[in-house]
């Protein structure tokens, strides 16, 4: 199991302990363990028990649980809690907007056993009558449940990708299989995945191969549906003859609205996908873009080499340190970027309004700036840019006075509070922040958390138009839970001449590499590297930031 899966088990145990009203200190210890594990840059499998004990927030007791998880996939505390929890509530415990404690109260007072029971009780007005709830809470629960039902059985691309490649490696290792590749939505790198698709060409017979699937951890239900080992994602397997592989691969990757333009007579015995596109008189379309939209039109004017790749990135600009709610020092984050081959690192800790995230007061800002000046002397030619993630207040203003705003090299302006807005109010709020002369980058445009929370509604075109008019860059927040701005709106931004910045929103060393997920989303939109702010070198970027400040 990887770090994230192990951390998820500790978080699960913490939620179940809270549900059953157990020891608050044990709950906190499991939550802290989950945070520690998620923030580790190295895999837990590389730590022996003694090394685990030395990790902050782990210690001797939890290290033994980690060892047990490695051996069995679970640990005693979790195994005790799961059977005493209503089976139908297990899938709800831990969902954002439904606290374990509140769910337990509804279980005890209204005999709520599952999501359907809860939705029915809300619609009947029973939940509102329970002490501590009321009409507003009941409405919020209905909203959360409807979102839950809509997204049930869906997975983040990050989780699906890891699972898919782990399976693919095992398929390719089998002597029974001539060739195996990803296809479908996982190959197109959709941000939300409902199933994993594989195309396989066999040496052996189906029965032998299906036994092999079982040996590598796939499972099968009574409906003959295969599921992946860790996340239980449905697995779809296509078979074909070797001479049909390329044509079938194309057909099972792109959506029908894309594939209809290809000449299928060139599928048989094709050596490469590129050959099929070329013989069809069409530009080659990378798998990510095969969505049946305007990909052929886009690729008429650019080449595959023009599209952004991870290797084109020279730095990252939205990151957090221990000054606010990050897990590492500025120097540790900068050194990690340097190790990854980047030229610069931008710190943008939370601003003073974000009290929940230890946002920086003006005096702390000045202290941080002084530290960065020293680090830039120490780490040169590597560059640390001085930024802030300034909260956009309810009226659209930023939450520092001008004398502080002008201290930064750049400012990421983001909304973190007051998320329940109408489209008109949210759009107006964003546009006012964009019009602030100190705003450099608009952060996570809609505030969405994929599979957890809908973003606030906005008029994307009006917001993008405002960015174009005011020279403000738009962030592609690469956190796999956000991926915000959505790739579908990137194309309009490019048409309007708006630059994009692919940022990890990293709160720990490992999260810097989230930029890869942002690149995946950008490639779906056919984003060219020349329109990405952080493909610029530090010297050019410094001039852009300086020009923005001079004209503020």
Secondary-structure blueprint of this entry?
Layout: H1 3-19, H2 24-39, H3 49-53, H4 59-72, H5 76-81, H6 87-90, H7 100-110, H8 115-123, H9 134-151, E1 155-156, H10 157-172, E2 177-183, H11 184-187, E3 192-193, E4 196-202, H12 206-215, E5 219-220, E6 226-227, E7 234-239, H13 245-251, H14 256-259, H15 273-279, H16 295-299, E8 315-316, H17 330-339, E9 344-350, H18 362-379, E10 383-391, H19 402-405, E11 410-414, H20 423-435, E12 441-442, H21 460-470, E13 473-477, H22 487-495, E14 500-503, H23 515-524, H24 538-550
Parallel strand pairs: 4-7, 8-9, 9-10, 10-11, 11-12, 12-13, 13-14
Antiparallel strand pairs: 1-3, 2-4, 5-6, 6-7
Question: Could you explain the architecture of this structure?
Answer:
The chain is α/β, with parallel strands linked by helices and 552 residues long. The protein folds into three domains: 3-151, Orthogonal Bundle (DNA polymerase, domain 1); 155-306, Beta Polymerase, domain 2; 310-550, Metal-dependent hydrolases (TIM Barrel, Alpha-Beta Barrel). The protein is built from 24 helices and 14 strands. It has a seven-stranded parallel beta sheet. Strands 2-4-7-6-5 form a five-stranded mixed beta sheet, sandwiched between helices. Helix 1 (3-19) packs antiparallel against helix 2 (24-39), helix 1 packs across helix 7 and helix 20 packs parallel to helix 21. The longest helix has 18 residues, at 134-151. The model has no long low-confidence stretch (mean pLDDT 95).
